[in-house]
Amino acid sequence: MSVAVLVVAFGAGLFAYARKPAIGPVQPPHRSAFDQALIEKGAVLASVGNCTSCHTRPGDRSFAGGLAVPTPFGTIYSTNITPDPETGIGRWSQAAFTRAMREGVDRAGNHLYPAFPYDHFTLVSDKDNGALYAYLMTRQPVNRRPRANELPFPLNVRLVLAGWKLLFFDKGAYRDVASQSAEWNRGAYLVNGLGHCGACHTPRNRLGAEKKGSHLAGGEAEGWAAFALDAGSPAPVPWTHDSLFAYLRQGWHADHGVANGPMGEVTGNLGRLPDADISAMATYVVSRMGEPAPQRVAKAREIRTKLSTDAGAIPIPVSAKAETPTGRGAVIFQAACATCHDGSRPQPFGGLDFHLSSTVNAPSPQNAINTVLFGLPAASGRQSAIMPGFAATLRDDQVTDLLAYLREAFAGQPAWPDAADRLAATRGGKYPVSVRPSDGIERGPANVGAQDK
Ligand code: HEC
Ligand code: HEC
Ligand code: HEC
């Protein structure tokens, strides 16, 4: 077959695939049409799916949209998903809503951008979509048109998305893997579906799609590295079912520290999910990580011994002569960090001993840079892990010296080669970093919807 024939065939296929019918409008359903228990279930699910934060501008009306979702291609604004009949989804039937979740198509038949993570939400069951629909349709309607997306031609043409879907999108509700337990399947359903963990934890290709063979192999989000959750996990003490359960349940674990940046919000959002579901997620994630290699287990044992015998000792590697970067970094560490990070104060409010830190052991310096520059802001109204930011007090060369020291003293590895470049780019705003209280609990689901009752 000639290339021309192929192109024509592809184009014709695409055109057929690209056309989606509109689904007729309905009268906005009345609150009494929905069972209260279903609405409450939908509230929990909306929180797990992070619908609230992505469709709400901070401090603004819930679900009214307009939050800018930056992508490498341009800015996409989340839509109004309140039941307003004109500007929201008030005229959407449940079938139209389920189609949006399953196929990424709006009621009128337009393709939606995958900034709305329907590549994960496609797995959500009809039943759970019913609960989400019940919850959203019983929110306060807000009459506000979403802002237009800022995308260059041809990406601003929605038809292009038909091609993207053809290449990268696997449509269909979750199907149990028969060889796995019910608990594992429940975990896979939540992690890969509503939880859309891979949206941050899986690397993406140049067209913004998650790389197929690299599921949960480590990605990025909002200026942070989202660490690998597979065999490549940088955690010095390998994760177990129980430590994952605790971290996802409470936002921290003594062997791993506190969930920072966007992950703080994720753990807050899981807050009202029952323990059994969190446990299922841990079962699935730990299976993705697999049995840790013997060297990792040995290394972890070594770290534990070190922590129990020289608690509070500040490691000075041999290379840390006064005139080397590690030497200068060691001095800064002692002056600025050691009081909190000598490991003598318990998690989550004391700083982690960096022998345990995924951040210091990770292949990218990004999260260490973010934490050093911006610190951890206090959560309002309750105790949280707090760290001051050093953006104003440490010069760039001091930060890179400090990072070289952390890397060598606590991870036993050479300095990150890209630390200086990433530091400059982060200071210059090239990686806009979302700085959040690391304790997500106060934005947890108990508060979701509080302002729109
Ligand atoms: C990472 C951010 C993000 C998350 C999380 C998210 N959305 Fe969205 N959503 C968007 C964006 C951005 C759009 C607009 C896409 C476009 O313009 O094509 C959108 C579009 C939609 C639409 C289409 C609305 C319309 O008028 O066309 C629906 C319905 C929707 N989202 C529902 C949900 C639900 C339900 C959840 C939670 C289960 C959710 N979204 C979670 C970002 C998000
Ligand atoms: C919005 C992006 C985002 C989403 C969605 C997300 N994560 Fe994360 N995750 C991150 C970031 C960023 C970090 C690094 C946090 C830090 O530096 O403390 C992280 C860290 C983690 C860690 C700690 C890894 C380590 O070695 O320290 C675990 C475990 C984890 N995430 C599990 C999950 C699971 C399970 C889900 C789905 C329920 C999920 N994440 C969803 C961004 C995300
Ligand atoms: C006032 C106490 C305090 C000071 C001073 C402080 N930190 Fe922290 N830091 C914390 C707390 C609390 C956390 C959150 C708990 C945790 O995960 O370690 C944290 C977290 C971190 C993390 C994330 C660790 C992980 O893997 O989860 C890094 C990296 C970090 N700090 C680096 C530094 C560096 C470098 C300095 C010195 C320039 C410093 N901190 C000074 C309190 C402090």
Description:
The protein has 453 residues and is mainly alpha-helical. It folds into 3 domains: 15-171, no CATH class; 182-289, no CATH class; 312-443, Orthogonal Bundle (Cytochrome Bc1 Complex, Chain D, domain 2), CATH 1.10.760.10. It contains 18 helices and 6 strands. It has a two-stranded antiparallel sheet. A two-stranded antiparallel ribbon has the order 3-4. It has a two-stranded antiparallel sheet with strand order 5-6. The longest helix is centred in the last third of the chain and has 17 residues, at 325-341. Residues 440-453 have low confidence and may be disordered. The structure holds heme C (3 copies).
Radius of gyration: 24 Å
Continuous helix count: 18
Rounded mean pLDDT score = 91
SS strand fraction: under 5%
Major beta sheet, specifics? 2 strands, antiparallel
**Heterogens:** heme C
Helix content: 40-55%
Spans with pLDDT under 50 lasting ≥5 residues? 440-453
Number of strands: 6
Structural class: mainly alpha
Name the strands of the widest sheet in spatial order. 1-2
Secondary-structure map with pairings?
Layout: H1 3-18, H2 36-48, H3 51-54, E1 68-71, E2 74-77, H4 94-103, H5 118-121, H6 126-137, H7 160-168, H8 182-192, H9 198-201, E3 219-221, E4 224-226, H10 241-250, E5 252-253, E6 257-258, H11 262-269, H12 275-289, H13 294-309, H14 325-341, H15 358-361, H16 366-374, H17 396-411, H18 419-427
Antiparallel strand pairs: 1-2, 3-4, 5-6
Helix pairs in contact: 1-7, 2-6, 4-6, 8-12, 10-12, 14-17, 16-18, 17-18
One heme C binds at residues 191, 195-197, 199-201, 221, 224, 226-227, 229, 233-235, 244, 247-248, 256, 259-263, 266, 281, 285, 358-359, 367.
